[in-house]
């Protein structure tokens, strides 16, 4: 969080203002990093692409941050933008397009680590620790002196030009050794990119996978067997102790860390005077999304939202990292579309906006893609970090004893679970349903009053707030969710289907009775889906 008066604009306003490149020199590391590493499969040629990986310099990053903060304090900057994916190409076009202006840039002025770099390499390089600044001519000398004081290289590489006539945007003109190599409207690259309408189809094996439910797997039946199961589960990578990672650095620098791993959400104090703080949680489950991308995305959002809410903070914003295989595969594109739709629907129901995020495609080796993995981060605000609600039991324990509450209803829901994978290497069925507060308001948890006789871990459980059935089983609900339905209750279309998928699914009372937007073909293909309860 940042005071409003310190927010910086990226727009390249003011014709005649100077364009300054500040930070590390530009090299060949990172050239095509976004297009190569995020848009190509992991194959035998991946090793040859290693130069595409950006090389970071943490010490230079720290110096660059301090130099930027001093420039903000002195109000030396009109606009500023970091050089991320696509390097100078992205920064120049985005800053100019944001203001509707143009730019004249000389690539010969860009400091290079390798003098033999071609113009397209200079523009596409994703070398780290670089910022693009827009400054007025009278502030240029002060900006260069500030950068030099911090040991950061700063170079004027161009200037802002006026918009075109009759309200048209300006043009981005880039020269190299006296030749014009770029002459385009900045918005053509920043805002007017092509929109793909890729073919999509549900994965052919999805209905069979969903029919193979984990609830039918054998479970431990004796105390000793249960003990061994628990030990194996807590030793799994997803559940094991992770302090060997988090304790390799000091999490409590400056004394503002209030809650840290293994808490549900991290909480930090941002205002020492008022105790104002923020809470953040990042969650995702690729197995859930493999079984149902729509529900998997909503479940990731629900978990991150709950983790923030139970600390006592009010969830305010969402970010995401969407990881999928090749979008050229119609099945992967369908998974991506369903996950985005699930995340969008969940955010609308919770009344919380998505403020940013990124998409990573082509995460696969050959034809084998990763599980669709939408990772969702939720940020919330807490008025006083002293009132946060920790995850553990209070220490020392209350002399009169603490009361432990379990909110919500426990059901036989094991599909996609850690237990199914650790014990049986099984992935199948339908992930547990997700429900949402009926009002759509953002719940948060309040700590117990100080000095009360009892304490409880109070959570706002969506299950406890509302229960809604998205999908109605063919037996009309006569059987418990997830159980077999009487054979006679299955509709004729399931019993008479000639496909093996429908025959398998029919055993589980999987005929859909709710409406969803699908093409007629996909609706027929999904005619035997199971009871999805929320």
From TrEMBL:
Span of domain PurM-like N-terminal: 263-382
Quaternary data: Monomer. Part of the FGAM synthase complex composed of 1 PurL, 1 PurQ and 2 PurS subunits.
Annotated residues for binding of substrate: 54, 126-128, 360
Disordered: annotated segments: 430-461, 476-534
PurM-like C-terminal domain location: 14-163
Keywords: ATP-binding, Cytoplasm, Ligase, Magnesium, Metal-binding, Nucleotide-binding, Purine biosynthesis
Positions annotated to bind ATP: 320, 357
CC per GO annotation: cytoplasm
One function term, GO molecular function aspect: magnesium ion binding
Catalytic function, reaction form: N(2)-formyl-N(1)-(5-phospho-beta-D-ribosyl)glycinamide + L-glutamine + ATP + H2O = 2-formamido-N(1)-(5-O-phospho-beta-D-ribosyl)acetamidine + L-glutamate + ADP + phosphate + H(+)
Protein name (record): Phosphoribosylformylglycinamidine synthase subunit PurL
Family: Belongs to the FGAMS family.
UniProt source species: Phytohabitans flavus
Record localization: Cytoplasm
Enzyme Commission number(s) from the entry: 6.3.5.3
Binding site for Mg(2+) 1: 358
Main location: cytoplasm
Source taxon at top rank: Bacteria
Pfam families: AIRS (PF00586), AIRS_C (PF02769)
Residues bound to Mg(2+) 2: 82
Compositional bias segments (type: Basic residues): 509-527
Role description: Part of the phosphoribosylformylglycinamidine synthase complex involved in the purines biosynthetic pathway. Catalyzes the ATP-dependent conversion of formylglycinamide ribonucleotide (FGAR) and glutamine to yield formylglycinamidine ribonucleotide (FGAM) and glutamate. The FGAM synthase complex is composed of three subunits. PurQ produces an ammonia molecule by converting glutamine to glutamate. PurL transfers the ammonia molecule to FGAR to form FGAM in an ATP-dependent manner.
């Amino acid at each position: 969080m940042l005071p409003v008066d310190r927010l910086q604009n990226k727009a390249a306003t003011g014709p005649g203002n100077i364009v300054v490149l500040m930070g590390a020199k530009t090299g060949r590391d990172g050239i095509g990093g976004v297009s190569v590493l995020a848009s190509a499969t992991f194959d035998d040629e991946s090793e040859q692409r290693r130069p595409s990986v950006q090389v970071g310099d943490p010490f230079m990053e720290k110096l660059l941050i301090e130099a930027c903060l001093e420039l903000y304090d002195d109000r030396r900057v009109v606009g500023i933008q970091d050089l991320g994916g696509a390097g100078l190409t992205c920064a120049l076009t985005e800053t100019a397009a944001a203001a509707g202006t143009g730019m004249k840039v000389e690539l010969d002025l860009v400091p290079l680590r390798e003098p033999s770099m071609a113009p397209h390499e200079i523009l596409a390089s994703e070398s780290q620790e670089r910022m693009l600044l827009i400054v007025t001519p009278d502030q240029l000398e002060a900006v260069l002196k500030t950068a030099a004081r911090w040991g950061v290289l700063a170079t004027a590489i161009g200037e802002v030009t006026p918009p075109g006539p009759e309200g048209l945007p300006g043009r981005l003109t880039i020269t190299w050794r006296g030749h014009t190599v770029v002459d385009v409207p900045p918005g053509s690259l920043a805002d007017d990119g092509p929109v793909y309408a890729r073919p999509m189809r549900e994965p052919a094996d999805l209905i069979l996978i969903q029919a193979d439910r984990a609830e039918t797997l054998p479970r431990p039946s004796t105390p000793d067997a249960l003990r061994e199961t628990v030990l194996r589960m807590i030793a799994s990578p997803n559940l094991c102790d992770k302090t060997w990672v988090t304790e390799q650095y000091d999490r409590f620098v400056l004394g503002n860390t209030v809650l840290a791993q293994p808490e549900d959400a991290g909480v930090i104090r941002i205002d020492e005077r008022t105790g104002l703080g923020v809470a953040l949680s990042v969650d995702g489950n690729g197995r859930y999304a493999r079984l149902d991308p729509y529900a998997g995305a909503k479940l990731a959002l629900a978990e991150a939202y709950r983790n923030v809410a139970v600390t006592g903070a009010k969830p305010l914003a969402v970010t995401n990292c969407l990881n999928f295989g090749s979008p050229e595969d119609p099945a992967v594109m369908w998974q991506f579309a369903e996950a985005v739709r699930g995340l969008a629907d969940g955010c609308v129901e919770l009344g919380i906006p998505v403020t940013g995020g990124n998409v990573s495609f082509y995460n696969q080796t050959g034809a084998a893609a990763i599980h669709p993995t939408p990772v969702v981060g939720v940020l919330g605000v807490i008025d006083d970090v002293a009132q946060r609600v920790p995850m553990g039991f209070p220490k020392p324990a209350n002399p009169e004893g603490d009361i432990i509450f379990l909110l919500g209803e426990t059901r036989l829901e094991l599909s996609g679970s850690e237990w199914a994978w650790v014990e049986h290497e099984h992935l199948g069925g339908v992930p547990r349903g997700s429900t949402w507060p009926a009002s759509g308001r953002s719940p948060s948890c309040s700590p117990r009053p100080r000095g009360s006789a009892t304490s409880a871990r109070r959570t706002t459980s969506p299950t406890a707030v509302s229960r809604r059935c998205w999908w109605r089983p063919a037996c009309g609900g006569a059987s418990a969710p997830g159980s077999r339905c009487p054979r006679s209750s299955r509709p004729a279309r399931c019993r008479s289907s000639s496909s093996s998928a429908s025959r398998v699914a029919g055993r589980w009372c999987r005929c859909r009775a709710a409406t969803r937007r699908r093409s007629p073909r996909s609706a027929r293909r999904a005619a035997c889906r199971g009871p999805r309860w929320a």
